[in-house]
Amino acid sequence: MTQDPPSRLELLRFARRVFVQQARAGLTQIDRWIADEERRETERRRRLLARPPAPEWLVEQGLGESTAVYVHVGNCHMAGKRSKGVQRDQAVRALADGVDACPHCRPDTRLGILD
After folding, report:
1. Contact status, residue 107 vs residue 78, Cβ threshold 8 Å
2. Cα distance between residue 111 and residue 99, in whole Å
3. CA-wise closest residue to 72 among 61, 88, 58
4. Pairing of strands 57-61, 100-101
5. What is the pLDDT of residues 91-112, one digit of tens each?
């Protein structure tokens, strides 16, 4: 007893069911990717909002030294990796103690300290 092979119409209906199942699975995967990306974007925004504000003034330390070599305005592009944020009065004190003002951002001018 052999069965007749499935008809072309039955094969097309089967193919449609398989396609619908695969499409649903694909949409589910894409929805997961979208949710993951939305979660990452929300976390990125939260980290940006939680970041402390940039310091207004920087003091740059010398190589292997504990002495300051430059005072910078907080957003100076010439400030090195050895720079740390300081308060206004600390920047003024450093300049008064003989630490050089950065020749690019001129913190002495912004602070109102002129030679």
Report:
1. no
2. 14
3. 58
4. unpaired
5. 999 999 999 999 999 999 888 8
User: What does each C-alpha distance from 18 to 14, 15, 55, 111 come to in angstroms?
Assistant: 6, 5, 60, 73
Q: How far is CA 25 from the centre of its chain?
A: 33
Q: Which letter does DSSP use for residue 99 in this model?
A: P
Tokens found for residue 60: 């740059």
> Which residues, at least 6 apart from 106, have a Cβ–Cβ distance to it below 8 Å?
73
The ranges of the chain with pLDDT < 50 are none
Neighbours of 58 (CB within 10 A): 26
pTM: 0.59
Three-class SS of residue 82? coil
Cβ 42 vs Cβ 57: under 8 Å: no
Beta bridge partners of 15: none
Question: What is the distance between the alpha carbons of residues 48 and 72, in angstroms, rounded to a whole number?
Answer: 24
Report d(CA 20, CA 63) in Å as an integer.
66
Q: Which stretches within the chain are classed as H helix?
A: 8-50, 88-96, 107-111
